[in-house]
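pipeline stage [seq->struct] | target=1-acyl-sn-glycerol-3-phosphate acyltransferase | organism=Candidatus Avitreponema avistercoris | residues=316
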Amino acid sequence: MEAEPQKKNGLTLAEYYKDLFPKLLEYSSVDRVITEHNVFQTPNYKIRELVNGMCREVLLPGSGIKNFANAEAFLQQLKEGKKGLILMEHYSNFDLPILIYMLSSTCGETGRELSERIVAIAGMKLNEDNPYIAAFAEAYARIVIYPSRSLAAVADPEEHKKEEQRSRLINIASMRAFERVRQEGNAVLVFPSGTRYRPGHPETKRGVREIDSYIKLSDVVMPVSINGNCLRIPESKHEMTEDVVFHDRLIMTAGNICSAAALREEAKQWAAQAEPDQTDRKQITVDYVMHILENMHTENEKGRLDGLEETPGTAG
């Protein structure tokens, strides 16, 4: 039997996976409205199997995880009872799915074990805005938060007051879940930027100061950079289902693990030279994290596309 021809680049998520979208809804059982009672959401493995296939289809040869020995050392720290935090770059809604897919399918038993111990911090938008995206996110263990950016966007004073109370309840419950899952030997994954990076919008690569709280409550941290992007955000986009699918060689790199306390101390020393006028300690820590990730990204972009034919689908 001949292999099915590869679909072309440039289709929206909804167009590219139109045959799978009905199954996402069929398999979905998530409670889309977030309250303080359902912030921790367990993975739906029927949906994960579908999403694994989606990832497999768009990854070009040579995709994989670099410096996996760092991830192995991180897993060992978890097994020894350390509270672990993964700090990862964020370019698309495929970032977490591809990480979990590559860990579980290309990194042996150790990779599979680590993939099952990852719990992601996710904003409410993934659950509440679109039923297909909610089902997509349901494939993974996650703790749902009410992001400060979402609250700031509520303009009506009465609505803002109501949402402020809701956000407080949700985020208190989220921090409790954050502690509980790590006591159970899991790692929490967070995107320090709090949003996906959009080219031409440098503010989307600025770290969110609240991330410092997660770092402060951790023992060890591991940065992860991402080079390549299989699901891109168009300038005119309105819905996440309108993100555009591209085949790409995607490299995720596990950085050196370090103690959270040491990271925060290094951030102070770095800021004395890099941003001497910055006095917000929380922002300094997160700015330093973004600096580390940017350096990793730049280094790991070198040679990423070597050996690939140039196509519209390969870009950094």
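stage status: PASS
auto-comment: The radius of gyration is 19 Å. Residues 1-5, 311-316 have pLDDT under 50 and may be disordered.
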